[in-house]
Fold this sequence. Notes:
Blueprint: H1 3-18, H2 22-29, H3 35-57, H4 64-72, H5 74-106, H6 113-130, H7 132-155, H8 180-184, H9 206-231, H10 233-236, H11 242-247, H12 255-258, H13 260-291, H14 297-312, H15 321-355
Amino acid sequence: MNKAQILTMFVLLHLASIFAIFPERIISATSKGHWEPITILFLAELLVLWMYLKALSQFPGKTVVDICNESLGKWVTRLIVMPMLIFLYIELLLLMYFQSVEIKAVLLQRTPPAATSALFIILCFYAVWKGLNVMIRASIGLCILLMPFIFFSMMISIQNFRISYIFPIWDSGMSFFSHSDFYVCTVILAGFLFLGMIPSKQRLSFGKAAAAVGIIFVFALGSVYVPLLVFGQETVIHLQYPMLMASDTIDLEWVVFDWLPSFYVVASSALGVLKVSVLLWMLVALLHQLFMPKINRLWVLSVVCFSLYGISLLIPDINALNSYLYLNSFFCVYSVIGFPILVFLAAQWLRKKVNT
């Protein structure tokens, strides 16, 4: 794998979260000035991403686990990784359930939820079994195949825009900080965590990563403002899939474009499979390396997949996801902000130990 492939994976993992839950959560978090919380989230990502990449660049060929083990010891490393393991597990469960529900609602209405969930987890199991290198190389093909549909789905709704819906554009009180949905949105920042799990001597530079974050920022703005400018705040806040509904408002005569919502669901589901696979790979790698080194990784993967599938069947409906999302937001904030800071501090401590 090369830097271009890693950068492509970096972008696609962010987009997977953006098109899964991001628009409805930002719209719920504030009724005006939606660009403000989006900008703050991405500025926060740039800061922690710099710290994360700085720590990794100081020790080429080492992962974040290696750095923390050598600096803090295994038990402290296990302690600081534990909240991230909880985040990864809950996030996997939520993403898997959300994608299965979306596929069933648009594409497979008569298929039992158990069957769509089983298909989804089998695809992810196979991807993790093949390894991260295969997933990173596959991200290039997915980008070429999927991005045109996603981009076209966003741009096609422009003809239905009402610019007046963009106002008011400023939230002077920044009220979104007191809304739990804002912290749920921090899940989109988790797309950079996999960078610390690759034992590569050729690290991604911060400049290239920052440029990719800029591209992702544009898509994040679009995912919120496209449905907002089509429906308005009072209507869009009640929609479960605002981006999907916005693309469905266009009446085109060409049959292929009449299937645009289906193409959008297929594209977002493929991104969902990619993100679940990468997060699942991270979870299994951390469990195997820190807690179960003597157990075959395939067995760890199998147990995790079976447990995810079983628990997903116990979720009563998609409305129950809110309680899990709010619970996971605490672990998410730690994983995407607290953990990179701890890795950075551990790297500085280890560097001092090496130099003395």
